[in-house]
Amino acid sequence: MTAIMDYLALMGKLKKIEDDTSLDRDARFYQEFVALKARYSFSATDVLRLLRPAASVSAPSLVEDLFEALLSEEKLKAAANSTTKPLRRYRNPHTGEVVETRGSNHGRLKEWKTQYGADVLPSWREL
After folding, report:
1. Angle at 76 between CA 26 and CA 28, to 5 degrees
2. Ranges 1-15, 56-70, 88-102, 110-124: which has the least confidence
3. Which of 1, 51, 75, 95 suits a disulfide with 69, CB 3.0-4.6 Å?
4. Residue 92 has pLDDT above 60, yes or no
5. What are the backbone dihedrals phi and psi of residue 55, each rounded to the nearest 5 degrees, phi first?
6. Whole-angstrom distance, CA of residue 100 vs CA of residue 98
7. Of 54, 51, 49, 43, nearest in space to 67 by CA
8. How far is Cα 54 from Cα 52, in angstroms, rounded to an integer?
9. Which of 67, 117, 57 is CA-nearest to residue 92?
10. Dihedrals φ, ψ of 103, to 5°?
11. DSSP H or E stretch at residue 93
């Protein structure tokens, strides 16, 4: 009777594993990783040396290093895709003072707006 109970318990665990979507994602990642290694004729050690050339490779940290490198690569791509406002230069024709800003919230620009009027400021912008 206990063998049947053990069998049913194992079948339940197997069902949970099969239903787990994170395992599916991990399996796809591993398959793509193996395909990339084969495509470029790299071993796992070669990949880790590329990702972390200065660090010594130790067995327990292989997976952690790989995921850390992949995450940092994603952050770099996200930073490269982000857009920044263009730098704008304003020259006060009365004083010759130049202000460089990426937005209109600059303190000196606000002073000029109150002193000379907001409608004049766009004409002071240099291209």
Report:
1. 15
2. 56-70
3. 51
4. yes
5. -85, 145
6. 7
7. 51
8. 6
9. 117
10. -145, 175
11. none
- Residue 73 belongs to what H/E stretch? helix 62-81
Say whether pTM exceeds 0.70. Answer: no
3-state secondary structure of 99: strand
Q: Where are the domains of the chain?
A: 1-41, 44-82, 88-126
Q: Determine the straight-line distance between the first and last CA of the chain, rounded to whole angstroms.
A: 86
pLDDT of residue 93: 93
Q: Read off the pLDDT of residues 22-62 as tens digits, 9 standing for 90 and up.
A: 777 888 888 888 888 888 888 877 787 777 776 554 555 66
The one-letter amino acid code at 62 reads: L
The CA-atom distances, in angstroms, between 23 and each of 19, 28, 86 are 9, 9, 44
Q: In this structure, what token pair is assigned to residue 13? A: 């665990």
H or E, element range at 125? strand 125-126
